[in-house]
Amino acid sequence: MTYLLTRVMLLSPILLLSACNSVVMNPSGDIAVQQARLIVVSTALMLLIIVPVIVLIILFAWRYRKSNTAATYSPDWDHSTSLELVIWGAPLLIIIALGVITWISTHVLDPYRPLQRLDAARPISMDTKPLIVEVVALDWKWLFIYPEQGIATVNELVAPIDVPVRFKITASTVMNSFFIPALAGQIYAMPGMQTTLNAVINKPGSYDGFSANFSGAGFSDMRFKFHGKDQAGFDAWVASVKAGAGAGASTSMLDRSAYLELEKPSQREGVRRYSVVAGDLYDAILNRCVAPGAACMNHTMAADAHANHRMGEKPTLMASPPAHISTSRQPTQ
């Protein structure tokens, strides 16, 4: 009975894990698929050392136990060239292999790098235009602006399958982390800065998205749904938002004054939709000049750099705003 109970206790974690559908290891986006494969390969390489060491520890403890008088007893033994080569050579080779894999994957899976393929069997043509989504982490909700479609949503993200998506990500106050496990790895959202994530979803469905970085009282409920739809479904969704239909529908315009109200801290926010968005809103959020009379960071930096240059000093700031801080865009009609 004791033996049976012990076996059940040992097998219980394995049975529980076998029933678990981990989205990180079974994702629906090509970038996340490559990241999952990297985890598997890296783990397998490390197990090449870990498993033999554990097995040998058990084997040596059993073979050289006190009661085994047949085991070879060599108290003066202290060196074996063959054993030293195995002990140091095998880990060194694994470290080199991990280093090569890490270097390659760091460049291939760079979130700023435009996608080269939809999946392993389908490359992306050079003239493919990605869907642009501007992401703003608020306290404690997510704002998604579709500049080309002229709409915006709160806690609802929709994208067509097999279409590259370029996320431009920033935050309103404190640092957050934008994470959709089924799509790609997490990337930080920081106030006054912009990060970028290029990804693609390959399967239709509804997936969880959330903040992976503690940001205050409402952090636990800072979640949203990411919906992957076919192109027709995405177009229909855009049309419904513009028409003010559906859950969280709104026919109001998301301009600077509306954003200042939205920006106020709130918890457990539902879905909101805005059928019209001010074309310069994201740039104002990024440069922290949404409020009336506030100076934009990119203008301040450019003015400071110009003043330093006129005084004959070596500029300490950039002469013009970097591309990730300011982009010129006409208001959406």
From TrEMBL:
It is found in: Cell membrane; Periplasm. SUPFAM superfamilies: Cupredoxins, Cytochrome c oxidase subunit II-like, transmembrane region. Keywords: Cell membrane, Electron transport, Lipoprotein, Membrane, Oxidoreductase, Palmitate, Respiratory chain, Signal, Transmembrane, Transmembrane helix, Transport. GO terms for biological process: ATP synthesis coupled electron transport. Residues 314-333 are annotated as: Disordered. One of its GO terms (molecular function) is oxidoreductase activity, acting on diphenols and related substances as donors, oxygen as acceptor. Residues 16-113 form the Cytochrome oxidase subunit II transmembrane region profile domain. Pfam families: COX2, COX_ARM. The chain crosses the membrane at residues 38-62, 83-104. It comes from the Bacteria. GO terms for cellular component: periplasmic space; plasma membrane. It is a multi-pass membrane protein. Residues 128-240 form the Cytochrome oxidase subunit II copper A binding domain. Belongs to the cytochrome c oxidase subunit 2 family. NCBIfam families: CyoA (TIGR01433). This is Ubiquinol oxidase subunit 2. The gene is cyoA.
